[in-house]
Amino acid sequence: PQQFSSQNEQDNRHYARAAKVPMLEPSDSREAKDFTRLAFGLSEEYDTPFLLRTTTRISHSKSIVRLADKEVRSVVGFLKKDPQKLVMVPEFGRRRHVLLEKRILKLRQYAESSGINFEIPGADRGLGIITAGVVYQHAREVFPRAGFLKLGMVYPLPQELIADFVRRYRRVIVAEDLDPFLEEQIRSWGIEVTGAEKRSLTGELTPDLVRNAWGKKRRAAAPPVPEGLPARPPVLCPGCPHRGIFSLLKKKGVFVTGDIGCYTLASIPPLSALHTCLCMGASIGTAHGMEIILKPAGERKRVAAVIGDSTFYHSGITPLADLVYNGAETLTIVLDNRTTAMTGRQDNPGSGRTIAGKEVPRMSIAAIGKGLGIRNVAEIDAYDYGRIDRTLDRMLRKAGPGLIVNHGACVLLERKPMARPYRVDEGLCDGCRRCLMISCPCLSLAGPGKRAKVKIDPSTCYGCDLCAEVCTRGAIAEGGR
Description:
- This protein is α/β, with parallel strands linked by helices.
- It has helices spanning 13-19, 29-46, 56-59, 83-86, 90-113, 134-142, 159-167, 181-188, 207-214, 243-251, 282-294, 309-315, 317-325, 365-371, 385-397, 411-414, 466-470, and strands at 23-24, 51-52, 118-120, 127-132, 147-151, 153-155, 171-175, 255-257, 303-308, 331-336, 376-381, 402-407, 422-424, 443-446, 453-456, 476-478.
- The protein has a five-stranded parallel β-sheet, with helices on both faces. Strands 3-5-4-7 form a four-stranded mixed β-sheet, with helices on both faces.
- The chain is globular.
């Protein structure tokens, strides 16, 4: 909910119902811990996977947890050949479907009687609330006198428990984020409840939104953000190895199909050098599809696919093989920063270490490309601006698929500057602002209006020299303190 760091407000509860897999939903940190432990036990008991739904609000909050005694178990592995369970050809699959439906019925009975779904009687019999997850906390805060049916298992639902609860309250609402997942199931049983028609189907519910949707007194919305505050969009780090190649792709007018990673920030002005983003590995397939459409119009190499090294290993090799097989003209650029930077600098097959720290052979992206049959392969230093410029020109002209591996370790791996900070010679700077187009947070303007000149913050400058490369007046050079 609220799409804090994802591309869509996806309600994952639908996965449980579609796959007929049980789902637990905690409402605080304690339940997140307890439900995880419970899910492992129930998974063994009912011979099924369990889903544990967490939302951003649960993951970003804290509460007191209760620790159980530590258990140490020796796990002995064994192999059991059971193709009727593990090989889902149609004949076996039809038999397993019967067992699946029986299992769901057993899980419904568990939901009715286990205590994971429970009622909190209210002082006010006029209002009952059916809810789950963090919305339970919001609703309890807003309606302390109401009765609550607090659901810990959101699929399958306890039909008898819900029907009994609804009978004892004059008015029952279903409070939930996003889709009316619970409400629609309850209504399908002929049970009258209200809910979604009073709230938005987008965004995250808060106590104020719960009050405004179902309370008698509306509270004024929070005051808007004061006007005039400077915008603070997310930016690539100072010294980021991705910045140079994106600056040149923009300069050359290339349509860039992007992927998931830090480099998605290149879509934001002033870089504005990345034009699509869908999912991990999609950049290569998207570029290939666009090229097929552009070919009849005589267009060649106007599209480039950009993908990070960890994403390439994860899901970029398959579409790269596909475009080679189909004789595409697509240029693929792998931004190799030796880590999985966006999610916490985890190792990947190109870093030479496993996630546990064990030394292993480092996979070569260039060798993979050549092994797939790509003849036009180039490896470049992410900080050699001139060579990147020349390599892009050459690869955009060549026929057949091309692969550029842009090598430059993430600046957060070692956290030390590359050189002394750069400085601006105010006598040479004419305030053209060309250097600001690289979107480096070290650069800013000092002075009034159009006569303002660029300055560099020496406390954050990594000395990558990209700003000096794009300055046509030679006003930027190493030498700051």
